[in-house]
Model the fold of this input.
Amino acid sequence: MELTINGTSHTLNLPDDMPLLWVLRDALDITGVKYGCGIAQCGACTVHINGEAVRSCQVALADVWGEVTTIEGLATPEALHAVQTAWIAHQVAQCGYCQSGQIMQAVDLLGRNPAPSDDDIDAAMSGNLCRCGTYPRIRAAIHSAATALRET
Amino acid sequence: MTRLGKYTRRGFIVASVAVAGGVVFGVRTYRAQLENPLIAELGQGEAALTPYVKITGDGITLITPRAEMGQGIHTTLASLVAEELDVELDQVRIAHGPPSSAYFNGGVVEEGYPFPTTDLGTVPEFARAQRDIPAVFLGYQITGGSTSTHDAYVKMRRAGAVARETLKTAAAARAGIPVARLSTEGGAVVLPDGTRIPYTELAAEAAAVDLADAPELRPRSAWRILGKSQDRLDVVDKSTGRAIYASDIRLPGMRFGALRRSPFLGGRLRSFDASAALAMPRVDAVIDIGNGVVVVAADTWAAMQALDAVIYDWAPPDYPLDSAGHFEVIAAAFRPEQQDSRQRDDGNVADALAGAQAIEGEYRAPYLAHATMEPMSAAALMQDGALQIWAGTQGPTVARREAALAAGIDKQAVTITTTLLGGGFGRRGEMDFVQIAAKVATQMQGTPVLLTYPREEDMSRGPYRPAAIGRFRAVVADGLPLAVDIATASPSIMAGIDARGGAPAPIPAFLPDFTLSQALWDQPYGIANYRVTGYRSAPLLPASFWRSVGASQNSFFHECMMDELAVAAGCDPVEMRLALITDAPSRAVLAAVADMADWGTAPVGARARGVAFALAFGVPTAQIVEIEDTPSGIIVRDVWVAADVGVALDPRNLDAQLISGVSFGLSAAIGEEITLTDGAVDQSNYHDYPVLRMYQAPRIHTRILENQPHIRGIGEPGTPATAPALANAIFALTGQRLRDLPLGRSVVFA
Done:
């Protein structure tokens, strides 16, 4: 099976029904994507397929319909995505475990809605859990990133 | 304080140096008497000037030996050393370092003392000064109880100062210039002519220097780094997916394990049939760990699937089969035979209550899961008699002992690498995942295995914040409480932790469990007749430290009671508390939060407010919660919180931690609850254990005060006052006095 992940093509010999989450983490050692619940309740495993945020724990390998982007493929450390820059400026992360998923979800939101309101943010981000209580800073960071992206 | 008090206290500090061999205060001991675990791994030309400062040719590494579980402790600890070492934070690397008694935590010893933290009398201050002695002997390297900052505040600045003076002495010898004429800045010794000698070039010479005296620490007015907000040292890695948690350890040839234990918590596995699981593709092994099995496979998903193919015969539970039965056991503990402690008994409560019109209430708090975002995990490799463990543990020295016991080897053969923690909240002070990973490694010699708990295993097998009941009887007179008799009952955390192998040292059974009546007996209210009793129920589900520990239920009991008494007394709940509180810093946080929330002005529309105060982990904290009644239910709009940490080392991080603590408390208060049916836990994942989501997150406004005399930590103090403030707000809104958590059982939240 052929899969393009973060711009690199992989040939995989794995079960068709293996969730993309575990293909990434255990077969390909792409560990920025996290396991949190396995049932699409927490958002820690959020990646993009063709630019759209999906819960990778719910996508079987054989059903992957396009190019996969994980947090590792979102940008380079030298040239971060505007969302990551905002995350750092607002010092969002605490334990950090959920933040890859939060960032991938926020990038998806800003791709669809360049100027989200607080309600828009709540609606888009409420599938991504955080136990450290970073929600207020996530909201602030998304507003900052939205402003930065509109100005570029 | 009296002159005698001062004299005695000074005398005791001197004595403590003698007793502990100068462990804490001396310089030579950093190098000689106290184990410096870094020395063993040094190469040519490298130096470990203290257990916290390692200098090699290519850089400076600061050891930050506490678990980073989100609270920002690595950054704060590095700041303490960097301040005195004269390096900038972007010039250093940080590392958690190996498990070692050198990294003892004296703060946790202090937490168990039988003095309120507001008591600054001779004896309590005496005991605080000597806290490091038992800590050193126990090798207490542990992260918890919001103790890391006050444990490290002097110790790690001193480590930086010692290293700096050592480097200056080496530079003086090389240049032939007196030390007094040298200065330090930006990671270099600066000679009078402006020549800079980088610390990295001085490592080998500095290693031979033996300082005689500990340098003075700089006054706060001279601080460059401390007292100012710093960028977290882990923030870029945590925003780019590069941060490594135990779950992310990958080694050549690694296989993946998943765990299943009894649905009857702590129960035995009588037998099992793994033949179908072993026949599944990608499955390597099914390992008996005594109370369950671990399937090892080519990937975690295959291992999880194979767990369902094993046929298990679990022994029945030895506790009541449903939640009501558990509360019956706890309710039955309110009797003299089960008294754990009575740490407050002011005036004569019995006389004051006799014949008076008493107000009574009973409150209940459920079992709670920690539900960290990263499920429990650990990587392990047993090879040639040596065991390596990678784990996000809050107690690496205990983890090393427990890994050795589980593997049946000497602890000298065990290496523990402490990774970042994907949430802790007390759960990662438990040793189960380390013990199980060690057992798996012994069965998989030469093959590294990453053990992951399926979320369902993590959620439904405990250990939990114990369920608890609070009861009170009280009398008000002339607008104030005249008598308060309050009691709390729950299973003992400390008893269970010892049995599970999580304690640094055996816990004597005759000692009270200081967590049981935590934040109930030591509240700074002056009430003429005031009695606080803790009762220990029979053991039930495994009970564990959960963010803010005993305060998480006891503040709910106490502060809802105070609201009831204010109503009965016809007194404003803020005014009543201000009139009763005897500790000035505690009054100040309450006054601050009232000011922040504009308490004197009634909320608009369908809004209402509640207030609560808690003194926990030495930090007085006051909160006001404002809610709004909407057609879809109650919405928590704003939370104001003021807390006094004595010295604010990193204001932005303190803000984050208060928000974090409040959010954690709010999450539990609204919807979290572990219940049982037929002996098994009903909840298994985030769909039926609802934790706070973004749409429920209120605005949280914080203020840090610095009036109290001791520096304190902030990981836990934000949590306790949230649930009572919310319950009191609901009373203000609806007239309904909610006495059972979670509150979402009784009212609808939007």
Notes: Chain A touches chain B through 59 residues (CB under 8 Å).
